[in-house]
Amino acid sequence: METARTGPTHAAQRDTDVETPPRPPHNARAAGEQAARTPGQRAGLTREAVLATAHELLTERGLDGLSMRELARRLGVAPNAIYSHVAGKTALVDDLLDEVLAAVETPDAETNDPTSGLTRIMTSTYRVLLDHPDLVPLYLARQGARGPNAQALGEVMFAQLAQAGITGSAAHEARRVLIVYTIGFAALATPTASDASDDRPLSSAELFGNFTAGLAWLLNGIMSDA
Amino acid sequence: METARTGPTHAAQRDTDVETPPRPPHNARAAGEQAARTPGQRAGLTREAVLATAHELLTERGLDGLSMRELARRLGVAPNAIYSHVAGKTALVDDLLDEVLAAVETPDAETNDPTSGLTRIMTSTYRVLLDHPDLVPLYLARQGARGPNAQALGEVMFAQLAQAGITGSAAHEARRVLIVYTIGFAALATPTASDASDDRPLSSAELFGNFTAGLAWLLNGIMSDA
DNA sequence: CAGCTATATTGGACAGCGTACAGTTAACGA
DNA sequence: TCGTTAACTGTACGCTGTCCAATATAGCTG
């Protein structure tokens, strides 16, 4: 796959004689093209493009498929170029994780039924997580996301719990239980690994019912504590 | 993928360990010594030694600290030598995970209170997991263990559920919920990452109460379904 | 418009990883 | 005693994340 260089002309690196190559006017990042750029030239990379392509690569090729080098290849860029836009691979993944959480639907702040509000948050989170199966193990390995979206979600949950009269450490407990349960369930529902552990794979509908049942039990317990 | 083909590497599946044959008593594994061995000489490595050192290395230096090369270094052996005893790194970790589960305490088969029986299993699992914090993310990433110990545990859970009149797909659901909840909770209870997400770290006692509360809610719901 | 500075990008490199291949030798059964 | 088998080493390949110095471009200042 590599060494597509074979270029008729300059395979030389430090050559440097005039010979200005045709400069791409609007550039636009090439999909599969190899970068024919000399050191100083811009590629028009943006942080958003990096994140988007990384996300795409991750959901497409899995966690092991996400490497800085492959990412750079897709962006038509040298691997190091990425480091001008993200601090490193772990930072990249962190941002990715938080980005996904933006899609979680939260109830209106005025909803006066905390149980249904929390159900909505958690089921939406569950669905969002299932939309990105390859991210789920990462949430787990990192014990949840820590970015602004994650933080905001946590606040909404607190608000709902407060409406149910649950505050302080009890609220922390309840929130933790709900988060753990939801992420964990998404993890087990995710069919990445050879999940033929013991029986036929459950359908996603079955799993979802499964999830909501357990969620209802938890919420029931939480509310009855208040 | 590990393939692990090539005739010689057979690595003996775990089962029934026959008696340990005479080992080179001196030698043993050198702590910091450098291997002064020429190609054909034996190092007295055993599968158990490999697993034990790997376990030690993992809990000591974390997941990123566990590398075949560092493991070999500790064993006083060339990296490839390990492949005579385990099929590859992933197999090694799989065995590690299952090994730990052997410590989970299960109720007597005759216990006639499924709720307390399941509580016992899950709390014991929780404690065992917390004893090996650095393994927990691995359980999650792999969605639980799949070795014989894990399988046996699953069977015991089924037996308890059956005593409560829960069988078939309902039993599968319930078991999945319980496993997810337990592993997930252990994950969030594990303080590996900078867990200063929002508030002071809960004490382990708080977390344990937290865990048992949610567990009780789940079991309550499960049993009320039967 | 010229000049300066900040920075996006490249080639190259480093250290480390998992593991395959091909030898060399010790242990073991015949 | 010999032949086979398994453990072990040396070496090497292709991969990884990331740093460094050089370079050309973009944007700002004048």
TrEMBL record, chains A, B:
The keyword DNA-binding applies. InterPro entries: Cro/C1-type_HTH, Homeodomain-like_sf, HTH-type_TetR-like_transc_reg, HTH_TetR, Repressor_TetR_C, Tet_transcr_reg_TetR-rel_C_sf. GO terms for biological process: negative regulation of DNA-templated transcription. Pfam families: TetR_C_1, TetR_N. Residues 1-45 are annotated as: Disordered. Keywords: DNA-binding, Transcription, Transcription regulation. One of its GO terms (molecular function) is DNA-binding transcription factor activity. Residues 67-86 bind DNA. Residues 44-104 form the HTH tetR-type domain. Gene3D superfamilies: Tetracycline Repressor, domain 2. This is TetR family transcriptional regulator. It comes from Phytoactinopolyspora halotolerans. The lineage of its organism: Bacteria, Bacillati, Actinomycetota, Actinomycetes, Jiangellales.
